[in-house]
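We recall that each integer encodes one residue's backbone shape. We quote one record:
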Amino acid sequence: MVIPVKKKVSIIPAQNIYNKGIKPELKVLRVAAYCRVSTKLEQQEGSYEAQIAYYTEKINSNPNWKLA
């Protein structure tokens, strides 16, 4: 004879491990950009450099971001 066992479920409340008293505006995020050129067409020759310049400026202009 099989005796049914009552399962016990414990609910563990979530904890915000990323916000232990640090104000969000004081956190600095390490950010990286992915730049690439898919073809060797003449039209895209400066594309890679333009992407690097754009994302470098974008990341450096945000005080909460640091270029990784």
